[in-house]
Amino acid sequence: RMKNEQIESIHRRLKASRETHLTSGLDVPEDIAIDEASRNLYYTDSGKGHVVVCDLAGSFCKIIIEEGDHGSKPRGIAILYKYRVLFYTDWSEKKPMVVRAGLDGSQRKEIITTGLVWPNGVAVDQVLDR
Fold first, then answer.
1. How many CB atoms lie within 10 A of CB 3?
2. What long-range pairs does 10-19 form, CB within 8 A, spacing at least 24?
């Protein structure tokens, strides 16, 4: 059986109004975060081991963090808008962690690397900057 993974949105008020943002290049998409200021969609794909940014139309996408060669499995993702950084979890069996990086994938830093088992999600507090 062929996988038919895609990323869609549904308008809150018009529940029948569905918009498809991405239909190709997906293996195991896990989580998404939207940067409303730049109108970009960020997603993690644990099957390919990377973090990707796309414009909301899905016409331009770029891998910003590629970890697939190390057995990584990025999963949860969140954006701290004030500082223009993203956080994501990696639930690989070898080295589970929480990572911080710029919205372009630069300045990647592993911020939590001990005491984790299968970190699935991450959230940020936009008000308290944490």
1. 9
2. none
